[in-house]
Amino acid sequence: MAKILRDEDLVDGALMTVAIDALETAFLARAGNRLISPPRHHVSFADRGDLVFTVGGILGDKPLAGFRVYETFEGVEHSQIVAVWSADDARLKGIVLGERLGNLRTGAIGGLAIRHLSAPDARTVGILGSGAQARTQLAAAAAVRKLDRARVYSRDEEKRTAFASEMQHALDIEVEVAGSAIEAVDDADIVICATTSQTPIVHAGDLKPGAHVNTVGPKTHRGYELGLDIADAAAVIATDSPEQTRAYASPFFLAGSGNDSRMVDLADIIAGKATGRRSPEDTTLFCSVGLAGTEVVVASAILDML
Amino acid sequence: MAKILRDEDLVDGALMTVAIDALETAFLARAGNRLISPPRHHVSFADRGDLVFTVGGILGDKPLAGFRVYETFEGVEHSQIVAVWSADDARLKGIVLGERLGNLRTGAIGGLAIRHLSAPDARTVGILGSGAQARTQLAAAAAVRKLDRARVYSRDEEKRTAFASEMQHALDIEVEVAGSAIEAVDDADIVICATTSQTPIVHAGDLKPGAHVNTVGPKTHRGYELGLDIADAAAVIATDSPEQTRAYASPFFLAGSGNDSRMVDLADIIAGKATGRRSPEDTTLFCSVGLAGTEVVVASAILDML
C-alpha cells in the first residue's frame, strides 16, 4: 500500500544524506540524458490562482516517475504534493505532503554542489540568512564536509541567535553569531548565501582565497544577493539548471556580464564531463536555481528509507 | 489536516447519492461556464509509459480546484490519485487514492442522465454487462428511481449470476439473470449498456417504447455496443461531453449518421437550456464519455461526507 508521509514524518537527521545521495544519482542521470524534467505545467482557475505541476523522473534500470504540484491560491495554509511511482511495475511508492521535502531537496542540491566544488578539507562555513533555506543548506554542508564551525549573520539579531543555538544543537558543531556579513564569511571555506536581499551583501574581497560559495537567494537583474565580482573571481561557475537561468522573467544576474557563457552544469562536473575545482586557491560559485524533477527523486529515496 | 481516502474507505451506500448530487452542481456549473475542464496533459517517460493529468474545478461561491492523475506503465497494481483544494482559502481538502472513485464518478454521471432523461415512473432496468461499470450504473439508477426489478445479461454465466446475487443484496431490489441481451432489455424502462462489445448487442426493435438507454461501453467507428437504429429512434440524444465525442482517435459512432448534429449536452438539459424527454413514449439515449474535471467535484463531496 502506498505510503503517505507528512512534514512531521521528515525529521530524521539522516534524511539529508539520503537526499544528497539520491540527487547524486539524479544528476548523473541528467548528465546521461536519463533525467526526465519537462517544463512546468500551469493550469489557471481564473482569478483564484493556478495549479502548477512539475513532472520528473529517471529512466534506466530502476525507473522512477512522479510529479510535484503546488497551488498559488490565496490562503495561509499551503500544501505541496509529491507522488512517486516505480515506472517498471506501475507501483505507487507513495505521496509526500507539505513543505519540508522541497526545502530538503533545495538543501541537498546545495550539499551536492559543496561535495563536488568546495575544498575537500573545508572546515568552516559562513552563512548569510537564517531562514528555512539557510538551515537546510548548513545541514547539507555538514552532511558532506567534516565541519568544525559555522558563523551566521542575518539582519534580525533574534533570528540569527535562534538559528545559531538551534543548528549547534541539531548538527553538533560550533555555530557562532556574527555581527556582520563580512565577519560571517571572513574565514569561511564555504559561504552559503540564503537571503532575500535584492542588493549584494558580500563581495569578492570579503572572501577567503579558495572559498566555495552557494547562492540560494535572489539572482536576477532585478536584484541579487551576491556581488558580481564574485563571479569575476570564480574559477568555476556552476548551476543545477542552465535552462532555468535562461527562463527567468527578469534576466539571470550574470546575463550580459560575460560570466554567464562560462557557467557549467553541475551534472557535468559530477559526471566528469566538465572541470570543477583545480586548486586549493580556486574560488568556486554555485548558483542554485532548483532543477525541476528532482523532488521526485528525493521523495523516492525518503519513501524507501522511512 | 488533509484527509487521505482509499478504496476501502469508499463503501458507504450513500456515496452514490452524494456523488450524483455533486455532479448535478458540476453540470449546472458547466452550463454556466463555471466548470474548469481543460484538455488532458500527458507526460511521457519514454517507453515506460505516461503520466496523464486531468485538471478540474468549479468557479463561483465555493470554488474547487484539483486534478486526477493516472499512469500507463506496465504493471498489475495501478493507482489513481485525485486531489482537491478549496480554491478560496488554498486548503487541501484531501486526496483520494484508488480505482473506486473513478467508477463511482462514471456511475454517477449515468445516474444523473437517468434522473433527467428516463421516465419519472421508471421501475425496471435491463443491464448488459456485469463488470464494475455495470455495478455502479445500476447503483446509480437505484439512487434516482424507485426500482422494482433489474435483469442482467452478460456472456459469462458465472459472472452474471454473481452480479445478480451481489446487486440484489447491495440494493435490496430483485435482480434476475437473463438468458440473452434481448430478454434483459425486453421490458426495461431503463437500459444500461456497459459492455466491452465492439458489435451491437441490442437494437431499437428490442426496446420497450419510452425506454431510456445509457451507453457506457465502446462507441467509436471501430466498434460500438449499441445498434445505430437506437439513435435513429431516439427523441433525445445527449452526452456529458460533446467535445470528447469529437476527440476520439476513431470517430464517434454517430459521426456521419446525421444523428450526431442533434446530440445535446446533458448539462444544458439539466439547466433547462435544451429540451429533454417530452412524452412517456420518447426513447432517450445518453452517451457517457466521462466529462473531464468531474472526478474532482465528486472527490470533494466525498471528502466532505466521510
Structure description:
- The structure is a homodimer of 306-residue chains.
- The mean pLDDT of chain A is 96.
- With 306 residues, chain A is of the alpha/beta class.
- The longest helix of chain A has 18 residues, at 100-117.
- In chain A, the strands form 3 sheets. The first copy, chain A, has an 8-stranded parallel sheet. In chain A, strands 1, 2, 3, 4, 5, 6 and 7 form a 7-stranded mixed sheet that branches.
- The first copy, chain A, has 9 helices and 17 strands.
- Chain A has helices at 15-31, 100-117, 132-144, 157-171, 181-185, 228-233, 242-245, 266-270, 294-305; strands at 3-5, 35-36, 41-44, 50-58, 64-71, 81-86, 91-97, 124-128, 149-153, 174-177, 190-193, 212-215, 219-220, 223-224, 236-239, 263-265, 284-287.
- Helices cover 31% and strands 25% of the residues of chain A.
- The first copy, chain A, starts with a strand and ends with a helix.
- The A-B interface holds A 1-2, 4, 6, 36, 38, 41, 43, 45-46, 48-49, 51, 53, 55, 57, 59, 63, 65-67, 69, 71, 73-79, 81, 83, 85, 87-92, 95, 97 and B 1-2, 4, 6, 36, 38, 41, 43, 45-46, 48-49, 51, 53, 55, 57, 59, 63, 65-67, 69, 71, 73-79, 81, 83, 85, 87-92, 95, 97.
- Chains A, B: One of its GO terms (cellular component) is cytoplasm.
- Chains A, B: This is Ornithine cyclodeaminase.
- Chains A, B: It holds the Pfam family OCD_Mu_crystall.
